[in-house]
Amino acid sequence: MNTTLGSLRTLLSLIKFELRSEWRQQNVLAGIFLYAATAVFVAYMTFRILPGPTWVAVYWLIMLFSSTHAIGRSFGSSSGVRLLFEQSLAAPGVYLASKIMYNIFLLVLIHLLTCLCMLVWGGNPFQDLVRFSWVAVVGHIGLSGALTLIAAISRKASGQATLMVVLSFPVVMPLMLLLIRLSMHALDGLNPEAGQTYMLQLLALDLLILSTAFLLFPYLWRD
Amino acid sequence: MPRLQPYKWITLLMLSLVIPMGWMGEVPRKIILNESIRNLYFHVPMWFGMIFLLAASAWHSLVYLRHRKLQHDDWADAYSVVGLLFGTLGLSTGMIWAQFTWGAWWSGDPKQNASAIALLMYLAYRVLRNSFSQPETRARVSAVYNLFAFACLIPLLFILPRMTDSLHPGNGGNPGFNSYDLDGRMRVVFYPAVIAFTLLGFWLSNVYTRLRRISHLLQDRYS
Predict the structure, then answer these.
(1) Range of the domain at A35
(2) Total count of domains within chain A
(3) Contacts of B90 (CB under 8 A, 6+ apart)
(4) At residue A138, does pLDDT exceed 60?
(5) Nearest chain B Cα to A214, which residue?
(6) Yes or no, beta carbons of A212 and B147 under 8 Å apart
(7) What is the pLDDT of residues B127-164, one digit of tens each?
């Protein structure tokens, strides 16, 4: 009981620490948001009118690229000393949990911004925008889990940016396929029951990704 | 007489029966399929072989993480290389077959897409392996990625293709080989073909590992 409470407290303080240090480097955060917004604008300028399926495809492509970009830094920004400090502070599971939770928060922020820009420039093709948002948020959990683990891996491999993309894109593909399918349902405003199996599969995939990440992360932990 | 392990004799014996029987044995006459039905003996065993080899690779990665013996990393490496070879052969035999039966090299069939993603994952694994100079770090980090990729491969190969209609025999209302097409004459060739090609894959991995070991030894001696 006491240890659970203790690790929960460590988790919260790690997230707070992450938030505070990110807030201090606002230019980096602003860069990520600008990346997403610029990509949306380029998509809008090339397509002009975004029909429903294109809207969904463009949205997920931009999300994929900006989330790899954003999460790719999650272990890179820590200097050697800070990494050592954080590692001595927390157990690997708690440390990974803090990173994944912060990254989910970051992805939701990017999602909101991308969505807003796309709704303004591309219009709203959705019959059921609320469901789309839910699907996206559930997807961000898995996306964040997979990309955080891959970020830790590519950090070990001297953190090249190309490696991050090459390693993560095929791995998140199953997730993407499900997310695009479910977004299409929200687009057509299908009865939620029609997509129930897909939703369950998405949740199962999230669970699979998160549990594998938590099982494997301790092996990346220390040299 | 060369001294070979028993399974290698079995492989040789079975392949020497499977290959002539595969080309010349009696097959049912089907419209569209015609003689291309023989692809069953060569294309399908590649996928079975690939899955077994990649599972063996993941297994050795797991054992490496538990026991930290570099020979397991060599095995994981070898199995993934041969698995990749089998996957490439499976994809190309499938594409040639598809050109003559479905009318296109690539038709966006879910199984085609899934196997292309699987190949990308393991190509990424090759890239990751090559970006380390230290054998221990390489073994540890790439074992983590290998296991993560294998965990993502399972939903990709076994769940997602079943969600959508596929052009493959046995899917989406297409007659399956295992219902009435696969009659007794084909079965006696098909099952041995699966076993023989899988064993051949394990044999190839064995040779590959031994080659790697020799090159390690030579490197140690002359550097």
Answers:
(1) 2-221
(2) 1
(3) B43, B46, B47, B50, B115
(4) yes
(5) B148
(6) yes
(7) 999 998 888 899 999 999 999 999 998 888 877 676 66
